[in-house]
Design brief:
Layout (H helix, E strand, L loop, with lengths): L29 E12 L2 E9 L6 E10 L6 E6 L6 E9 L10 E7 L4 E6 L8 E5 L2 E9 L2 E12 L8 E5 L5 E5 L6 E7 L5 H22 L1
Antiparallel strand pairs: 1-2, 1-13, 2-3, 3-4, 4-5, 5-6, 6-7, 7-8, 8-9, 9-10, 10-11, 10-12, 12-13
Length: 224
Amino acid sequence: MSSPTFQDLEFDDYRCPYLTPMLPQDVPEVVFHVYEEVMFRTKGSFYYLHVKDATKSQTLYSLYYLSPTRGRIKECTLSRATEYRNVCNRVYVGNVGDARVDSIGKALTITTGVTTTRVDMPDRKKKWAPHRFTYGDRRFVWKDKLAEKEILYEVKSESPMLRSKTGKVQDQTFQRPIAWIKSRIYSGSKFGIVGMAGGLDQVFQEFILASALSKRVVEKSQES
């Protein structure tokens, strides 16, 4: 396995190396298959998204949330399979702008197991506009939502779009994806697939899983 040399790295204006050029080129993607389990109760439906490995045989994580009969989804929690009752990522689902409007994108406040808290925020008041967050002093954006596939990129530069009345952001990203999620194309209990670049550390992988799955969960609830 070859690792990038120091000469291969790129640095931002603050001399922080970008993550994407640091990732090895010859390590395969990490792929997770996600299956949904539902328990119906009077006060709402309890959902479990079981995240399995590439063989689809071993459950690695479970994302849990309550979809109430009345009201909106307020929280999702991600746990490792071996530490089922211990949360490794907690996601608070907040509104953007007018709290009475449910058709717009949601801000996701994500706290990891090492108590790092970051906000995954849409660009503007539009249903699932590109979502952006900063992690480890590096910027990332979920975008390119085509054919039910949404892709996470590392951002090189970004700035408000001139004369935009809705808060559009123009950016330059690396071409190599950090992660992607594909869902809503499956029948039965399968919820979707999440893929990530090889070489990411476990804490960041779990953060990405919490972000990707929570976004899809809230989007699905808005459509039902």
